[in-house]
C-alpha cells in the first residue's frame, strides 16, 4: 500500500499515519470486540424467523472499488490515501443501514480519496483544492455517525474526499485557573481524557456519549452530541468556550468568553452545522474538576407512568443528578436490569467538592413518593472514575452500564443475522410524553409487524431529562429478511419519524440530522430559519462542497 | 391629540391605547420617581466642578419636531401615532447619552411615526407597508436600551417607524406540567409576573434584569438579557423553549422542545439579533417553581483579589448560588454596603423544594477559606418573594438592593447636573480578570482625568459569574462640562471599549450591541460569522428595513 510519492500521484498510506489499527472497517468499534459467528447465531435465537448463519464479513483488502475520479496535486499527495481499506472504512458511518450495506459489500458510495491533514494549513490547502475542482469534502469525525452524516449521496461533484482529522489529536493548552483547554478537533474521547489526565490539575471534559471511544471532539461539536450529564448540561454545546472553524470563506475564531450577549452567538451557528458550513479544527472547552464523591441507586417501579412522573419531579427539583436514566420494562429486561415488567430508574450524583449521599437520598425520596422501590443496598456511595461513563456499584446500574457499552457490538452481531436492530432518539415537552411514548410504541410495533410480518420489540429509555421534558431513546429489534434489511429498516424508520413529527417531538435529540433525518428535519425547521441557513451556507461555502446533502440541499451545488 | 380618523391620515393616539401613563419621556422609569431639583443639586456636591443648578426638563408637549416624512394608509392609521409626545418618547433608549440629549432638547433622530400593533396580523401589515415604502422599522421593546439599540442614525430610508408592542402583553397559555408559558413579546416584567401569579400553579419566569419594570420579554430575548440568576442560568436564552418571529420573509416558529440536536438552533440565531432579522412576537418560556426557601449573606473582604478568588472558587464549586455579586470597595461604599475599603460579596440561595441553609453555609465556608469575614447575623434565612429581584434580610444586602433599583434615577439626577455617570459590562475568563480589572480601572480613570480634567470614580461589581470567568460591571462617575457631556462620555466609553478588546473581554455581557457598541463588536465578531449573519439578514430582510445600523450595516440598505 505504501506507494512511493510522485508528483500528481497519491500515496495509499500518507506519511506519518497508519490506518486506525484494530478498528472494524464495516461495524462498530474494535475488531477484537466483534461477536464471533457462534455468538451471532446464539443471539439470533431470541428472534424467531432469522437465518441460521451470519452474513460473512467481507475482507476489506479484497473489495473492488471504482477507481478514484479525482487526484490531488503533488503538493498534497502525502496527505491523501486512495487505498481500498481507507476508502472502504470511510464510506459510511455506523448506522444499522451502514453496517448492513458494508456486510453486503455495497460500497458504491466510497469516497475517491481520504485525506489526513496534520495541520490547519494543510486542511486549508485541501479545502482550496477541493473548491477549485468542485470536489465534495466530507468531514468524517470518528466515523460514528448513525444518521448518514458522512456518506456522499450524489450531486454533480467531480469526486469525493473524506476528511479525517485523526492526526490533529492534541490537547494544546490547559488553563487550570479558568478550567478550560484548547483541544484539536480530531482527538477521540479516550485520548482526550488521557491527555487531560497527563496534564495534571485533576480536570476532565467528562463528555461520555455512547460513542466515546470512537468519536471525536470535532464530531461532538458538529453534531451537538449528548454526553455524560443526564440533566443540566446535556449537550456538548454548553461546554464550548470558543471554536475555531475553517470555512472556504476564511477561518472563524470566536473569543474565549465565559458568557456574552454580543449579538447572536457565533458558536451556536457552527454547533450542529454538521460540516456544512466549515470544518471545526479546535475549540477551547470548559472542563470539570474530576469528581471524587459519587453515589448511585437503581429504583424499581411497577408502573412506567409512575416512573416517568418521578423523573419529571426530579427534573423539576433543581437537584441536577448526573445520571437519571429510566429504562422501560422491555429495555430493563433486555439490559438485565430488572424483570417481571418493572421499570428501572438509574440515579447518580457526583461532586468534586461535597459529599453527595444527602442529595441521593433526596432523589430517592422523590422517586419513592411516586411509587418507586429503593433497594436497601442501592444507595451505596461509589468510588472510581472510569472513562467510559458513570461509575456505579449497584447491580442494576452495572447491568445497565455493561449493556450500554456492549450494545453496538450486539447490534452488529444481530445485523449479521439479518435482524433489524436500531435506535432513534427524540425529545418532547412533558405534557406530550405519555402520548408520544404510546404512539411510538404502538405505531412502530405495527409498522414492524406490517413490514417484517412478525412482531418485534420496541423499547424505550430516557437518556437525558429537562425540567420541561424528557429525551426518550427508542430501540427497535425485529426479524429482517436477508437482502431486504435496509429497505425494511427505512420503512420502519420513516413510520417512526412521522410519529415523532405528528407529536411535535424533535427528529433528533443528539444523533444529528445527517442525510437520514432530512425529511423530519425539513418539516421541523422553521422556513425563515432555513432561508437564513441556506444564505449562511452560500456565504461561507459558495461552491457547495462541504458535506453536500446534510441539513441543506440535495447534494448538488446551489440546491436548497 | 385624538384626531378623527380619515383615510390617509394617522391618529395621534391610536384606538385602544394611551401613551404609557406616568412614564418619563426623557429619563428612566416613572416621573414620580425622578429626583426633584433640590436632590439633584445635593447629589452633585459629591463631585467637584459641576454646575450649581440642574438642566431643566423640557416639556414634551412644547417640543418642536420635524413633520413626519411618511404616513401610513388609512387601513393602518388606527395603529399609528404621530403625536409629539409619542415620537419624543420613542426617539432614544435610556443610555446616559440618550438622557442628556433629551434634556438638551436634541431630538433630531425622532421617528416619524410610532406604531402600536395589537395583533401579529397588524404587525405583518405594518412590516409589509414599511417594506414597500423603504421605511426603517425599529422595534422599541420597553425602550430601556442603553446601547443606542432603538435610535435611528441615518441611512437612506424614506422615514422611520418606531414599533411599540406594548399592546401585545398577554400570557396566552400556561403548561403547568412542563412548567412553561406562551407569552406575548410586548409584556413588561411586572405584568408578566402578575399574570403568571394570577394563573396559579406557583410558577414564575424569575427574570429580573435591573430594567425589569421597564423592559419587555421581546426586548430581553432580542438582546440576550441578563437576569436574576448570578450563576448557571444567567441569560434569558436558557429559558427559551420556542420563539415566534415575524420576518419580512415570513413567520418563523420553532417547535416547543426541552432540548434538541437538530442542526444549529433556530432560536439561537434570533436570540441577540436585536430586531435586525425579525420582530419577536411571542415565546414559550420555561418557568420555575416560586422559591419558598431562601437564605442570603453578605461577606466582607479586606482584599478585593481575595474576594475575586472566593468568587472563582464558588463559581467552580457546583453550588450554583442564585446570587453571587461582588462589589469592589468603591462600589460597596457607593451602595452603602461597606466602608473602609472592604469589598462585599452578596450571596443568595433559594429553592422551591429544599431548605437551603446548608448550601449557604457551604458557600460562606468557601468565602471564609479565601479570607472572607462572615457576619454572625448574615446567614439568616429569609422569606418573601418580591418581583424586583433577590429578597434578603441582611443589611448590606438590603443596601445593595436599594441602590440597585434606585441607581438609574440617581444617574438621571446626576445627568441633569452634567455629571457623567454611566455603566458598561463585560465578561472574560478568570485567567485574564485581574489584568482586565486593573487595566479598566487605571485606563478609564486616566481617560476621565484627561477628558474631563478631574479624577472620577471607576467602580466595579461582578453581576454574573461562570466557572470559567466573571461578568464585571463597571460604573464611571465624573464631572462633565455642560453641553459637552455626550462628547466626553463617548471619548471615555471609547477608551474603555478599547481596553476590553485588548484584553479579550466581550464588548457586552448583557447590554447588547446596538449602535454604541459597534466598534468593539465588529472587532470581536469572527469575520466568517459576519459574512453568515449578513447573508442571513439579506435573506430575511432583503430591503434592509429592520433596525438598520444595529449589529450590521451602516444604516443604509445593502451596507455590510
Automatic annotation (TrEMBL), chains A, B:
Residues under site feature: Important for enzyme activity: 325
Active-site residues annotated for this sequence: 473 (proton donor/acceptor)
Known cofactor(s): FAD
Molecular function per GO: alkylglycerone-phosphate synthase activity; FAD binding; oxidoreductase activity
Keywords: FAD, Flavoprotein, Oxidoreductase
Stored Pfam families: FAD-oxidase_C, FAD_binding_4
GO biological process, one term: lipid biosynthetic process
FAD-binding PCMH-type domain mapped to chain residues: 107-290
Residues at which FAD binds: 139-145, 274-280
Residues the entry annotates as binding substrate: 411
Disordered: annotated segments: 1-23
Homology family: Belongs to the FAD-binding oxidoreductase/transferase type 4 family.
Name of this chain's protein: FAD-linked oxidase
Species of origin: Streptomyces abyssalis
Species classification: Bacteria, Bacillati, Actinomycetota, Actinomycetes, Kitasatosporales
